[in-house]
Structures are given as structure tokens and as C-alpha cells.
């Protein structure tokens, strides 16, 4: 066999090989898929408890400086010097398909000093805190009719923290 024949033979084997590799995963009908995903998430990929969205995604995002000092909020997201809100995210081809994600409300951090009114200080940054979560992604099987579930890792923002901004180095 010459090199050209080997390459042509190899090109015909790649689709067969990749199709056989996905056969290692069970393929599910559309109506079986959701139940299989829930079972796998419950037994193999435990999910953190979901936070309830405090605001609609289309509501204005602003730093709630004026609210500090008026009341004693209970939620950590409202007491933080880098407050956040939860919004709903949807990924139709993933399980779970809907989840909550934190969104920072301030660019800086809220400072409360002495008896002065709270202010947003840009000497500090509000930065997202990310957590890696496992989702099951729905992918088409080789038959083109059924699906298999592939675990994928997605970074999800779970809160915000106040941090000193990165220092810009200058040469001396």
C-alpha cells in the first residue's frame, strides 16, 4: 500500500472510529433524556443548591450605595461591600438547562467610614467569584436520532468580592 492509499483508508476510518467512540456513551430518545440527566446529576454530579433570583435580568444594574445604613438586610449578597444580584441563565442543550448566576452591582466597593454616608470607592474593585460546575451537555449520537450526555465544566459566577486592583508596574 502506498502513502496515498493509506491516507484515503484512514479518512474513511475516522468517522467510523469517532462514531464507535461515542457508542461508549448510552444514547437516549428525546423523551428519556431528561430523566437520564436528572438521574446522572443526582448520582454522579451533585449540584449546589440554587439561589433565587432577586431581580429580573432586564432590571437596571446599579450600585445600591443609598440602601446601606437604612436597613439590616439578611442576605449576604445585600450585606457585602461588593453586592450582587442573581440572574437566571439558560442553556437549552445542557442539564440543568436553567441556573442562577451572580452579577456584580458595583464597579468599586462600598465604603462605610465613621458616621459618613456610604460611598462607592474605586480604590477597590468588585470582582466576580467563579466556581466550576459540571453540567451534562446533550449531543447527537451517530444515528442522528438519539442523544448522549457529555459532562462539561462551566465556570459560574457565585458571588462578588472586594479586592485591591492589580498594580500597574512601572519601570524605574
TrEMBL record:
<keyword id="KW-0964">Secreted</keyword>
<dbReference type="GO" id="GO:0005615">
    <property type="term" value="C:extracellular space"/>
</dbReference>
<comment type="similarity">
    <text>Belongs to the IL-17 family.</text>
</comment>
<dbReference type="InterPro" id="IPR010345">
    <property type="entry name" value="IL-17_fam"/>
</dbReference>
<keyword id="KW-0732">Signal</keyword>
<dbReference type="InterPro" id="IPR020440">
    <property type="entry name" value="IL-17_chr"/>
</dbReference>
<dbReference type="Pfam" id="PF06083">
    <property type="entry name" value="IL17"/>
</dbReference>
<feature type="signal peptide">
    <location>
        <begin position="1"/>
        <end position="18"/>
    </location>
</feature>
<dbReference type="InterPro" id="IPR029034">
    <property type="entry name" value="Cystine-knot_cytokine"/>
</dbReference>
<dbReference type="GO" id="GO:0005125">
    <property type="term" value="F:cytokine activity"/>
</dbReference>
<dbReference type="GO" id="GO:0006954">
    <property type="term" value="P:inflammatory response"/>
</dbReference>
<keyword id="KW-0202">Cytokine</keyword>
<protein>
    <submittedName>
        <fullName>Interleukin-17F-like</fullName>
    </submittedName>
</protein>
